[in-house]
Each structure stands twice: as C-alpha cells, then as structure tokens.
Amino acid sequence: MNQADFWKLIEKVNQACPSRDHESMEAQIIEQLIHHNVDDILDFHLIQQEYYHIAHRNELAAAGEVMGIKPTDDSFPAFLYWLISQGKSTYMAALQNPDSLADIPCERETPSFLGFGYVAYKAYSIKMSLLDPQDMSDIYGAISDRGYYSPAPETQKEIYQELPDRADIDPSYTLEIIRVLFPNLYDKHADQIEKTGLYWEQRNKLLQSDCVIHARIGLGLRPKELYFEGTPENIAHFLASYKIADSILLTDLTDHLVVYSSGWHILSCPDEELHQEINRSLYPIQRSEEELRPVFSVSDWISREELDTAIFDEPPQWGQIFQPGGLTG
C-alpha cells in the first residue's frame, strides 16, 4: 500500500459514512483493512503515523485550541487523527492554512478521534486471528520484525513531495496571534473562546498586571466597555482598532483619565510622556507602515475589593495616577 492507496481507503470510508460518525467510521475502516493482506495493514499504519508526525505543528495546536481541543498528551493526538480521518484534501488544506478548518462542519462529532489511530492495530489483530488463531502477535511486534519503522522509501518520498512548504509559528502563540492568522476559524468558534486555556492564561496575566485600562467606547447606540493591559503599544493598537468610534475614554482603575479620543485621534492625554510613547506606536499604524494587531481585552471585571487584593499588595490610594509602566503615586 502506498500513500495514494491510503487516502483512497479513507475516502471510501468517508463516502460510506456521510455523517462522519466516529464509531461507524472506525468499524468501516477496520472492515476494509481486514480484506487487505497483512503487509497492506502494516503499510497503512506506518503511513498514518508518518502523516500524524508531519501534522505535529504549533499552528495546528493553536487551531485545535480554538476548536476546543486542549493541548494535552491525549487531546492533541486525537485532534490530529481526526484531521487525517477527514481525508486528503482536508488534511493538506489544513497544512497549507489551518484557517481552512473553519469550513469543516463539526456539529455532530467533536474534532477528536483517538480511536482512528488504532484502526490498523485492531485490524491486524483480527486478521491474524483469522489466519492463525494461535498467533498472539500484535502490529508493533510485526513492524519490529520487519526491521523498519517508516513507510517504504518510495512512498515516503511521494508523501513529502506533496506537502505544502509552510513555516510553522512560534510555540508561544496567543489568542491575538491566532485571531490574525486564522480569522475565519476564530470567528466561527468565538462563542467558545472563553472556555480555552489560552483565554484564561491571558486573563490571569491581565488580572496580575499593575497597568490595567478601563475603556469606554462610544459606538453610536452600541457603546461598550473593555479592560486591557495599558502599555503604550497596546493603547495605540486599541485606539487604531476603534478608529471610527465616536469617542473613546480610557481611564485607570481609579477612574483617572489616561486618554480621551475621537477614534484614533487623541484629544486629551494628561501625561505628555505617555502621549508621546503612544504616538510612537500609533503614527506608523496610521501611515500603514505597521500592521494593526488585536489587543487582548475582557468585557467584565471583578469587584474593586477583589481587584485591589489581586493586583496590589495594598489597596491603591485614590490620588494615584497612571504613568507609563503602571500606577504610581
């Protein structure tokens, strides 16, 4: 069996199971494999593992997290096996651009299919029991007896010739990076973003920050309030992301004015040094010399008493004002 036969077999099973029910798919592919010879079953396993290891990429881990997959030892492999089970076109498209996963319907089954990684193991055991009921060997022993643990050289060459040439992302990705790289996938799963570990990791980081901004944005009849970390760079990108807003009022958590603007045009900033630092980041964005990046923000906040306990060693005095780098007396 070569890689073309591998994908044809998966496509045949997908056509037989249009609902993509995992239990039915697993039973179907095991049934198909049993009708192949033992060498084909071993080849299927080795080819599957090759594609599995190829898909071990940071950007697919990021995409999986947005889709509700936890980056754990069990969950991410289950996601990759699910991806392979979707067929060649879906798999290759995801390697080329994980944002393509936004086009995959996942209403009936979660994008997690660990059992698909064991179909060759089960098929081999059934096949051997039919050929020789006394044979107690498993697929791993059979592969070891072969003396090699990857697809045949010609098959492996064909596998890598078909792969897209795409650099991976840094493992320290954030929700903002994911939103920029995979906008369609992010939007599709926006309602469950707050359930992800990435969201809570960034929210906890914001909670511990000593430089939190309370933003009140005037957008016609739909004003909104947000909280974000108030570095000068973040403030610049935040203003630019609401450049058509009627008004933006940024205060510190003691309600002292930090910035008042009309869209991305700053009308008032009491701290001139901060004003200059914001402009150093804002002007390149306005001149299209730098790309706008999303700023992580939350729409709700804990009580002032809880906030004082969480962020400050002691409650801040109401006379404190915002300075670049945090709140100072």
Give a verbal description of the structure.
With 329 residues, the protein is α+β, with helices and mostly antiparallel strands. It has two domains: 3-161, no CATH class; 209-328, no CATH class. It has 15 helices and eight strands. The chain has helices spanning 3-16, 22-34, 38-54, 58-66, 75-85, 88-96, 119-131, 139-146, 153-161, 175-181, 183-188, 197-208, 232-241, 272-286, 304-311; strands at 212-218, 224-229, 247-251, 257-262, 265-268, 297-298, 321-323, 326-328. The protein starts with a helix and ends with a strand. 27% of the residues are buried. Residues 310-329 have low confidence and may be disordered.
How would you concisely characterize the structure shown here?
The chain is α+β, with helices and mostly antiparallel strands and 329 residues long. The protein is 49% helix and 11% strand.
